[in-house]
Write a structure and sequence with these properties.
Blueprint (H helix, E strand, L loop, with lengths): L4 H10 L6 E3 L2 E3 L6 E5 L6 E6 L3 H17 L7 H17 L1 H12 L3 H23 L5 E3 L5 E9 L2 E5 L5 H15 L2 E5 L6 H13 L6 E3 L4 H10 L5 E5 L2 H13 L4 E5 L5 E4 L7 H12 L11 E5 L3 H13 L19 H16 L3 E4 L3 E2 L4 E2 L2 E4 L6 H4 L6 E7 L1 H10 L3 E2 L1 E5 L3 H10 L4 E4 L14 E2 L9 H7 L1 E9 L7
Parallel strand pairs: 7-8, 7-10, 8-9, 10-11, 12-13, 12-20, 13-18, 17-18, 20-21
Antiparallel strand pairs: 1-2, 3-4, 5-6, 6-23, 14-17, 15-16, 19-22
The structure holds NADPH dihydro-nicotinamide-adenine-dinucleotide phosphate (NDP).
Length: 500
């Protein structure tokens, strides 16, 4: 599935994105009429002025969500009913994938190729997979004596707030919405301020698919206002958040200072890509190394920016990674030849460039790239060598197209440096020895370890972090849906009509 640049531009010129908040089945302006601009980072052009949802808008969405939850139109609907609606939503996303992908690309600076893949394949897969899970998730019967029957039933948890990041806007909406809706919860989505447009279009498609009014609201807005109002709302039961560790911590505070809502956190990372001395240094490995750092312009929580390469291989590795980095084409996100689009905002571009500056100042050797250019927020992928574990760029999340090589001596040193991080989201390990792979995987403190390839897993596998990368909550897999279900014990005292 692809679009030529001309086709993408033609779709772009015909778009008229919805900019109002979606509350209780209809679109409306913010209660005070306020808006904020969403900008195309590839051109600097303002795409639209979008409703800045206020605290009263959050209240209105929560009241509608609770009413719908309590009346049972969605929460107590037969699971096969929810399944049919979510399957239809998957179909509608597929049907509108080109329009959605172009909209996403314009709003985020992501490449059209990635947007088409995420929206044409992954987003519908998530809705479909959780639709199928909706009528296959069972409770239990506990072991008791004959005088009792103990049923452990699963019930939807209530009203949930889903606070999203900008790096995979519609995909993250699907990661969180699909399991929450499949579980029967009423959902309130706050997209990131940089990328609100596709979530608003998704709301229209969800309404068309049959998601009842109130079971889904989409509230564009800013973090400190709209996001905080969701975090502090006394009638929201769960918030699932993806974003920075700093804001994740705010949500814990909001919960503590309001109703002790459950907070699920998926946050940043500083993930290692470990190449042991027996790894097969083939083209496949180099491709994984480059993609793990540069995919989505490095704006990825699981980016494997810290590449710990055995000293015996490091020279060859660096040479080949440089050659691959030079082959990335950075530019117009709507061009299918582009492999890295724009950084999401000029501010974020500056942030990434300041890390590149720190890398140089602290003595890392810049081997290629690292230049910013415009118009638009572009950065050539940078490869640094001679990183040491204490450098700023070895420790802090950059969230840009920067790959750093740290030479290591043997498996134990690789493990020790890899573990020395406050984050714990992801790691990749390359070795031909399965025992060493398992040894490393067991000892790396992170939620996903991929062996001989860079991967976050797929819809079936839980994704989330250890340490400051996350809480015990997980996106994806059956575990994600369980987070939106609560168990209830029904303890039945049975009468004893007499011995059999
Ligand atoms: P944030 O953590 O600031 O934003 C994530 C979401 O939280 C957005 O919807 C945001 O709204 C909202 N938010 C922001 N501030 C508050 C607040 N005070 N109260 C409630 N909600 C709030 O991430 P950024 O987008 O600013 O990115 C900063 C850094 O975070 C990145 O450089 C990267 O290091 C990391 N990050 C990690 C991601 C991941 O996948 N784990 C994804 C995105 C970022 P608004 O958009 O209005 O700010």
């Amino acid at each position: 599935m692809s679009l030529t640049k001309a086709q993408a531009q033609k779709i772009a010129s015909g778009l008229k994105p919805e900019t109002r908040a979606f509350i209780a089945g209809s679109f409306r302006d913010a209660s005070d009429g306020a808006t904020f601009a969403t900008i195309n980072p590839a051109t600097g052009e303002t795409l639209a002025h979008v409703a800045h949802s206020t605290g009263s808008d959050v209240d209105r969405a929560v009241v509608a969500a609770r009413r719908t939850f309590d009346d049972g139109a969605w929460s107590r609907a037969a699971p096969e009913g929810r399944k049919a609606v979510l399957l239809k939503l998957a179909d509608l996303v597929r049907e509108h994938r080109e329009e959605l992908a172009v909209l996403e690309s314009l709003d985020s600076g992501k490449t059209i190729t990635d947007c088409l893949h995420e929206i044409g394949n992954e987003v519908p897969t998530f809705f479909q997979w959780y639709a199928e899970l909706a009528d296959k998730s069972f409770g239990k019967v506990a072991p008791t004596g004959e005088e009792n029957l103990a049923l452990i039933v699963k019930e939807p948890a209530g009203v949930v707030g889903l606070v999203l990041p900008w790096n995979f806007p519609l995909l993250m909406a699907a990661w969180k919405l699909a399991p929450a809706l499949a579980a029967g919860c009423s959902c309130i989505v706050k997209p990131a301020e940089q990328t609100p447009l596709t979530a608003l279009r998704l709301a229209e498609l969800a309404r068309e698919a049959g998601v009842p009014d109130g079971a889904l609201s989409v509230l564009p807005g800013l973090g400190e206002t709209t996001g905080q109002a969701i975090g502090r709302h006394p009638d929201i039961d769960i918030v699932s958040f993806t974003g920075s560790t700093e804001v994740g911590a705010y949500f814990l505070r909001y919960a503590g200072e309001s109703n002790l809502k459950v907070i699920g956190l998926e946050m940043g990372g500083k993930s290692p890509f470990i190449v042991l001395d027996d790894a097969d240094l083939n083209d496949d490995l180099i491709e994984h190394a480059a993609m793990s750092a540069f995919w989505n312009g490095g704006q990825n929580c699981s980016a494997n920016m810290r590449q710990l390469v055995d000293a015996t291989l490091v020279e060859d590795f660096a040479e080949r990674v440089i050659a691959r980095a030079k082959n990335f084409f950075v530019g117009d996100p709507l061009d299918p030849e582009t492999s890295i689009g724009a950084m999401v905002t000029a501010e974020h571009q500056d942030r990434v460039m300041s890390y590149i500056g720190k890398g140089k100042a602290e003595g890392a050797r810049l081997l290629t790239g690292g230049d910013a250019f415009g118009p638009g927020c572009f950065i050539q992928p940078a490869v640094f060598a001679d990183l040491t574990p204490d450098m700023t760029i070895s420790r802090e999340e950059i969230f840009g197209p920067v790959l750093g090589i740290l030479p290591v001596k043997g498996m134990d040193e690789a493990l020790q440096i890899a573990r020395d991080s406050e984050y714990g989201l992801h790691a990749s390990v390359f070795t031909r020895d399965i025992d060493r792979a398992i040894h490393m995987a067991r000892r790396l403190p992170c939620g996903t370890v991929s062996v001989n390839g860079f991967s976050e897993g797929n819809v079936t596998t839980p994704f989330g972090g250890y340490r400051k990368s996350g809480s015990l909550s997980r996106d994806n897999g059956a575990e994600a849906m369980d987070q939106y279900l609560q168990t209830k014990t029904i303890w039945i005292c049975t009468s004893q009509p007499g011995a059999a």
